[in-house]
Design brief:
The protein is α/β, with parallel strands linked by helices. It contains 14 helices and 22 strands. α1 packs across α2, α1 crosses α4 and α8 crosses α11. The chain starts with 11 loop residues before the first strand and ends with a helix.
Length: 463
């Protein structure tokens, strides 16, 4: 087994049994303990996939064998595992394959304080250490092996989020939530309702697919794909709801549907939340305010940030990379096109539930509908992310540069990004960090120009 096949740029992701086995997990967890040290216990959490509990137990075996203690938090969302890592100041492992189909599983690793781990910041060392254990056929035992304890952090997680965003005074809202049989089925009732013992909020929650089921019987837990939003869009309209929320499998991403059934772009959500966070910290006396956005969010996000008098910092795509930049810059918030949203008050980690709460607060503090709030943050026309399987990625990228390079400024922050000189359009082409795909994003000032650039770029990519 070559671990380079499943250890990606910022997490571990692979097919259960053929790539990810208990032995592989045990070795990776043991190597992680070696990298982060044994001074602090290591938190282990897992999602609802059938393979996740056994993988969590295997990880505990590897960690304790190398001398570190384990705190098992059991079933949780990924952002709940970040909460445990941050509040307990402990490294963490989350077992999930996020939005991937049921045949997959994976590991998201955090250093203490929910700090991200990528290939550049420790994941390569974890991979190589685990490979050495597997090749040797043994994980050497430490002189004093660690112990395992259990802790339920869901109520504390819910209470902390309610401290960050107060929804108690908003107007009553009817909210349809599609958990896609993922971990939102556990966290939404705790945070937005009363399941964790918190008070009732002025929210009527209409649940869809809250039953935890790692086979995803209703639809894939990937709301980035429009087909997986159809059920929610219909339900919002049928119920006359004010808003719809869709969570992915591990519930760290949240997508928003307006009252008409229209999809609200993650860029619009980023702009809404950025404004709220800028206003909040400015009211607390903060003068120099920084907000991050990755390079394929809408141009309107940077314009909104700068229009509010804050500094907009452009980043590469990827949660561990952005967590690092959150720490380096002291940014109060960061937004990605993929609906990952990062908060300084959440240890710089991403939290889809917290972003949803900000949107609910913004919607509930006034009388305007979600469609209007979304429209004012969406002045441009976007292709959305289009994935293509390409045999020769480098040749495809060269064709894009050759065709569009003369019309705009080229940068290589993350793949290829070309912005037309007058500002009328931009095109981004970058390889996926987790799948064998080339990802295309286009934005333009008009629908026709976006379609022209999109179609030409796709023709070049798939030639």
């Amino acid at each position: 087994m070559q671990l380079s096949d499943i250890v990606k740029a910022y997490d571990v992701r692979g097919l259960v049994e053929s790539q990810l086995t208990a032995d592989v997990v045990r070795a990776l967890a043991a190597a992680f303990a070696d990298v982060v040290g044994t001074e602090r216990p290591i938190v282990i959490g897992h999602d609802m996939r059938d393979s996740s509990p056994a993988f969590a137990r295997a990880a505990a075996e590897g960690i304790t064998r190398r001398g570190a203690d384990v705190i098992s938090i059991g079933l949780c969302s990924t952002d709940e595992s970040y909460f445990a890592s941050g509040s307990l100041d402990a490294p963490a492992i989350m077992f999930t394959a996020s939005h991937n189909p049921a045949a997959y599983n994976g590991m998201k690793l955090s250093r203490r304080g929910a700090q991200g781990v990528s290939l550049d910041t420790g994941l390569a060392e974890v991979r190589d250490g685990a490979q050495a254990f597997l090749d040797a056929g043994d994980i050497p035992a430490a002189p004093q092996e660690g112990s395992v304890s259990e802790r339920d952090v869901l109520a504390d997680y819910a209470a902390y989020l309610r401290e960050l965003v107060d929804l108690s005074g908003i107007r009553p809202l009817k909210v349809v939530v599609d958990a896609a049989n993922g971990m939102g089925g556990l966290t939404v009732p705790a945070v937005l309702s009363t399941e964790a013992g918190l008070g009732q909020l002025p929210l009527e929650i209409i649940p869809m697919y809250f039953e935890l089921d790692g086979t995803f019987p209703n639809h894939e837990a990937n709301p980035l794909e429009p087909k997986n939003l159809v059920d929610l869009q219909k339900a919002v309209v049928e119920h006359g709801a004010d808003i719809g929320l869709a969570f992915d499998g591990d519930a760290d991403r949240c997508f928003v549907i307006d009252e008409r059934g229209g999809a609200v772009s993650p860029s619009a959500v980023s702009a809404i939340v950025a404004l709220r966070e800028i206003e909040r910290v400015r009211a607390e006396g903060e003068a120099e305010i920084t907000v991050l956005h990755n390079l394929i969010t809408s141009r309107s996000v940077a314009e909104t940030i700068e229009g509010a008098g804050a500094k907009a910092v452009r980043t590469r795509v990827g949660h561990s990379l952005i967590k690092d930049r959150m720490r380096e810059t002291g940014a109060v918030f960061g937004g990605e096109h993929s609906a990952h949203y990062y908060f300084r008050d959440f240890w710089g980690a991403d939290n889809g539930m917290l972003a949803a709460m900000h949107v609910l607060a913004q919607l509930g503090m006034g009388e305007r509908p979600m469609s209007e709030l979304s429209a004012e943050c969406t002045p441009y026309f976007s292709s959305g992310e289009i994935n293509s399987r390409v045999d020769d990625i480098e040749s495809a990228k060269e064709r894009i540069i050759e065709r569009f390079g003369a019309e705009g400024e080229i940068d290589h922050l993350d793949g290829i990004f070309i912005a037309e000189r007058s500002g009328s359009w931009w095109v981004s082409v970058r390889p996926s960090n987790t799948e064998p795909l080339l990802r295309l994003n286009v934005e333009a000032e008009t629908q026709s120009e976006m379609e022209r650039v999109r179609d030409l770029a796709l023709e070049l990519i798939n030639r």
